[in-house]
Amino acid sequence: MWDILDTNGQRVATMDPSGTPEQLRECLRHTFRMRYEGNRAPMGIFLHAMGWLGSDPVGRAAVLNEFIAWARTHPDVWFVSLGAAADFMRDPRPAAAAGDFPPFVTAVTARIPTNEVQTRQYTEGYLRCCSEPPPRFPLPDTVYLHYAAFPGGTATVQALEQWTDGFKARLTLTGAPDEAAEEWRASFTLEGAHITWFSDVHYVQDGARVTLGPSGSARGLDAGAVITREFGGTRTSGVVVADAQIELRRVEPIRPDVRWCQTLSDGQVRLEWTDAGYGYVVQTAAGNLPDAPWDDLPPIYGVTSRILPTPTNTPVFFRVRTAP
Question: What digits encode the pLDDT tens for the residues 39-75?
């Protein structure tokens, strides 16, 4: 499943195709054709974020996005996660029904990032990710933790200097008065200028919108603390900064979200939820909320879906919590 083949039929041992953008394009298309016109085995695209995508983020990401658009012009082609592919293998569907198969239904199509490769150093080691790294090094007791935003804090941006073709400015962040943040994110609008340097932050500028977060190991913001970060770059007109915002974050367990509730042809109900733990308890309530009591079904482990018996009472409600 993971093989990527060059045009000579040779395996790319590292899974990272080399060569020019044209050679990469043909490599991906050649591998796709072998599967599509052959036994229809899944084609996996597994890449090293920093070593491969990070070394040429714009060119290689463009080829990958172009390949995805090209492959989707072929009938009966879906780009899905490994989890969705595994769900399909457990419960195969004909092509005509795949469009309604819950694991294949994706609300948002995420494009390959072009400039968001980040490195995070932890006590246990480091990770290089093509999106935001997790709050803790992935271990059995930390993999289901995430950042959750909480209110408080302020962000301001002040232009310090402007000259013919450049500028310098300062970002000031203030923590919430009664709670320390383990992580923060900030954003602001910058008109008439392009940032070329920013001290001690990881930033992305998309047009006039700038989003940023901490870099290095010092990522938190103590209660009531004030930090400043200077930045600068080039300008084409008077620098205008507006709409500065801050998001403070704490670390807490991921909560499962129900993503699909479907009545099957035999009257049973298929319930699916987001991956948030090792085990889950499905709870049901019949009648009118909030007075109706919630009943726990036996816990299940290692899956994120369940077939429930045909409801005998209406209305019926479902929710899912993690099991110890």
Answer: 888 888 877 766 677 667 668 888 888 999 999 999 9
Rounding to the nearest 10 degrees, give the CA dihedral for residues 22, 28, 29, 30: 100
The number of distinct structural domains making up the chain is 3
| Statement to judge: residues 237 and 290 lie in one domain | no
**Which pLDDT score, from 0 to 100, does residue 49 have?**
67
Q: Are residues 218 and 273 in the same domain?
A: no
Q: Which of 208, 236, 253 is the last residue of a domain?
A: 253
- Among 100-104, 208-212, 264-268, the least confident range: 100-104
| Residue 110 domain flag | no
Helix, strand or coil, per DSSP, at residue 128: strand
181 SS3 class: strand
pLDDT score at 71:
94
Answer yes or no: are the C-beta atoms of 219 and 109 closer than 8 Å. no
Tokens coding 81: 């996660």
How many Cα atoms within 13 Å fall on the side-chain side of residue 286? Answer: 7
Q: Between vectors from CA 284 to CA 281 and to CA 289, what angle results, nearest 5°? A: 130
76 plus 170 within the same structural domain = no
Report the distance separating Cα 112 and Cα 151, nearest Å: 30
Contact 259, 272 (CB under 8 A): yes
Instruction: Give tens-digit pLDDT for 188-237.
Output: 999 999 999 999 998 989 899 999 999 877 889 999 999 999 999 999 99
> Is the pTM above the cut of 0.70?
no
Residue 14 has pLDDT above 70, yes or no: no
Q: Identify whether 319 is part of a domain.
A: yes
- The whole-angstrom separation of Cα 154 and Cα 173 is 6
Question: Same domain, yes or no, for 242 and 188?
Answer: yes
In 140-157, which positions are buried (b, 16+ CB within 10 angstroms) versus exposed (e)? Answer: eeeebbbbbeeebbebeb
Distance, in Å, from the CA atom of 25 to the CA atom of 17, rounded to the nearest integer, reads 10
